[in-house]
Amino acid sequence: MVTGCANPASGDRVKGLVMNNFLCAAGWIGTAAMAGLWSGVATGPRALDAASDARSRETAARPQIAYTALASGANLQETATIYLGAHIASLSPAGATKDLTAGFHSAADPDVSWDGKKILFAAKKTAADLWQVYEMNADGSGTRLITKTAFDCRQPVYQSMIFYLDDPGPVPQISFAGSMGLAAEGELGLIWNLYSVRFDGSGLRQLTYNPGADLDPVMNEDGRLLYSSVQRHSLAWGRTGRTVLLGVNLDGSDGALFAGDEGRQVKHMPAVTPSRQVVFVESDKPSRDGAGNLASVNLRRNLHSYKELTKPADGLYITPSLLSDDEILVSKRPATGPGLYAIYRFDLKTNQGLKLYSDPVHHAVQARVLTAHSMPVGRSSVVDERESSGKLFNLSVFTTDLPTNAGYDGKLVKRVRILEGVARKAGEAAPAGEKSPYLVKRVLGEFDIEADGSFHAQIPANTPVQIQTLDANGLALRTCAWIWVKNKAKRGCIGCHEDGELSPENVFSEAVGKPPHELNIPVAQRRGIRFDNDVQPILQSKCLTGGCHAGPPAPSMRYEDLMSKGYVDPSAARLSPLVWYIHGRVTAQSWDKVSGTSPLKKIKPEGVTSLSSEEKRTIIEWIDTGAHR
Q: What are phi and psi of 535, to 5 degrees?
C-alpha cells in the first residue's frame, strides 16, 4: 500500500496537451509538456523514447486508462492517509492526460464499472473531510456521493448482484474498506474491515470482522470477494503478523483462505484475469509503500499453484489490475533508490513489462483500463440481520494439516473453547503495565467434543472469535485465526487447520445431529481473565506463602517478571514454564519447537495447600487468552 501526505503549493491550472515535435539530425525526438497542473503540481510530460519505433510501440500498446497521480515528495505510509493530495487522471492512447477530480483535495482508488462508463473512487472534498466513496462518469463529469458514513471509506469496488431474502429482487452494490477507529491487534494501527452498500448509500453492512486489516477487495469470477487480510493471532510470523489472501461471499459469510502458505509472508493487492490467474504483490516483510515482486496462483488450485513471476531485483511493483486475458496493468519503480512509480503493461506469458507512462514529478499508480468487462455471477444470501447469532460447526477436530511425523494425536483433544476478541478504541490506553501483545479476549464458552471429533455451537453474529482445542488439563493444543459468522448463517470447518483443497469423507457428524451448544450469551456473562483480578489472588494465597518457595531460586510472581523473564508464553499455556511448574512436567507437545527444557519437580511444601483444579484452570485460561494485566 502507498501512502501520501503531500502539501502542494498553490498555482495556476493549465489544461490541455502541448506537443512539440521537431526533426533532429539523429532522428525524430518528441517532447511533450503535459498539462493538468493541480494545486500547483503538474502531471508532467511522459518521457518519450528517443527512437520513433519505440514511441509508436508504446502508443499502440497503451489503452485508455484511469490512474492515480501522487506527488513525488509524498510520504507513503498509513492506510487512512494513503494518497493524501493525490488526484485521479485519465490517460489516452495518444498520451494526453486529464485531471478528473479537480474539485477534490484528495482522490484515489479508482475502479471501473462493468460497462466501462463510470469510475468509482474514494475522495476528500477538503483536508478536514473523511474519505468517502464517489462515482463519476469516465470523463470526470456527473460526480455524485455514495457513502455518508462517520468513518473513512477506501478502496471501493463494483460488486456483482446479490439477493437478500428481504429484497424484492437482486440488488447491485459496492464494497469498500472502512475503519471505525478501533485499534488493531498488536502494532498494526487501525482495524480495517470490508463493508458493502447500495448505490444510493442505503443498506450499509459490515462484511468482515478481522481485528487486523482487511483491504484490497476485488471481485472474483465465482462471485466472491478476494481481499488481503493482515493476521496476527500468533507471533509465529513476528510482531507484524502475515498478510494472506482470503475469499468471502458478498454478504460476508464463509470466509476462507485463498492463498497464504506458499510463497512469501506478505501477499496483497490481488488482481483477477480472464485466464483464471490471480496476480498479487508479495514480499518477505511489510514494506514502506507496500511494494514487492509479482506472484500468482490459478483458480483451479489456488492453494497449491503458487508461481513467482518476478524477482525483487527486477523492480518493485504495486497495484496490479486486469488488462486482458494474459496481461495486467501494474506500477513499478526501481528496486533501489527512491524512484517514481510508472505504469507498465505486464505480459503473464513472458513475465515481461512494457512501460506505458511515466511522469517526472508524480507517482503513477492504481492504473485501471477504461473498458467494459464481464460482471461475475451473482449471489444469494440467507443472512437475516434480525437474528443475533449464527452457527459454527466442525466435522472432526482430529483432522489436521500437521505432517504425519509431527506426532499429533487428535485423540488428545477433549474439549473446545470459543473466545471473543474485544478491540479498544484507537487512543484508548491499555491498563498500566500491560505487556501482552495480543487482543483482549473473553471466553464465550467451553464444551466437550463428540466421540467422532465434531462439535456444533451457536455463537454471537458479527463477532471475531477464535476456536481453541483443549486437552484433558484444559491446555490449548491449537488455536485458529480470527473468524466470524453472519446473522443466521452457518459456518463449518472440515477439521483443525485442514488442507482446504480436500473434501471430507461422506459421513454424518454426531454433533450436527444434536442441538448446538448455546454460546450467544449476554456481554456481561462473557468471562475475561485478568492477572490483577483473577490470577494474582491465587498466587498470593497459594504460591507466596511461607515455605512454598523457601529455597533458591525463588521465581518472582509479579506480572512484569512473569512476562519479561520467560515464565509465561502469552497465548500458549502449554509452552509456559509457570504451567510446567504447576504440573511438575513439561507440557509442550511433540510438534512444538521447544528447546532446553526438562521436567520440573512439583513442590508440595508441608502446610501449604495445593492449587485446586479450578485454580490451575484459571491460570491456564489466563495464559491461553493472552495473559493480560
A: -95, -45
Domain hosting 610: range is 531-624
> What type of residue sits at position 370?
L
Cα 167-376-248 angle, rounded to 5 deg: 70
Q: Evaluate whether 567 touches 577 at the Cβ level (below 8 Å).
A: yes
Rounded to 5 degrees, φ, ψ at 107 are -150, 140
Report the side by side order of strands in the sheet with 173-179: 152-158, 173-179, 193-198, 205-206
Domains contained in the chain, number: 3
541 and 481 together in one domain: no
Q: Domain with 245 in it: what CATH number?
A: 2.120.10.30
Q: Is the peptide bond before 553 cis (omega within 30 degrees of 0)?
A: yes
Contact in structure between 391 and 458 (CB atoms under 8 Å): yes
Name the DSSP class of 552: S
Using CA atoms, how far residue 485 sits from 253, 364, 446, 463, 510, in Å, is 6, 39, 18, 7, 21
Return the half-sphere exposure (C-beta side, CA atoms, 13 A cut-off) of residue 588.
19
Handedness of CA 219, 222, 228, 230 (dihedral sign): positive
Write out residues in the chain with pLDDT < 70, as ranges: 1-60, 74-78, 405, 544-555, 595-609
Q: For residues 399 and 495, is the Cβ–Cβ distance under 8 A?
A: yes
Burial class (CB in 10 A: 0-12, 13-18, 19+), 246: buried
| 53 phi, psi to nearest 5 deg | -70, -40
| CA atoms of 420 and 422, how far apart (whole Å) | 6
Alpha-carbon gap, residue 345 to 293, rounded angstroms: 15
Chain segment 226-267, per-residue pLDDT in tens: 999 999 888 888 888 899 999 999 999 999 999 998 999 999
Report the alpha-carbon distance of residue 271 to residue 323 in Å, rounded. Answer: 10
Which among 465, 471, 457 has a CA at the least distance from the CA of 415?
471
What is this structure's pTM?
0.87
From 470, 498, 480, select the one nearest 587 (Cα to Cα).
470
Contact status, residue 505 vs residue 270, Cβ threshold 8 Å: no
**Among the listed residues 471, 468, 472, 456, the one whose alpha carbon sits nearest the alpha carbon of residue 519:** 456
Question: Which amino acid, residue 156?
Answer: P
Strand partners, 163: 380
What local confidence, expressed as pLDDT, does residue 403 receive? 73
Q: What are phi and psi of 400, to 5 degrees?
A: -145, 160
Write the CATH number for 448. 2.60.40.10
Buried b (16+ CB within 10 A) or exposed e, 303-319: beebeebbeeebbbbbb
* All cell numbers assigned to 51: 527512437
Angle made by CA atoms 433, 438, 443, in degrees to the nearest 5: 105
> Per the domain annotation, does 53 fall within a domain?
no
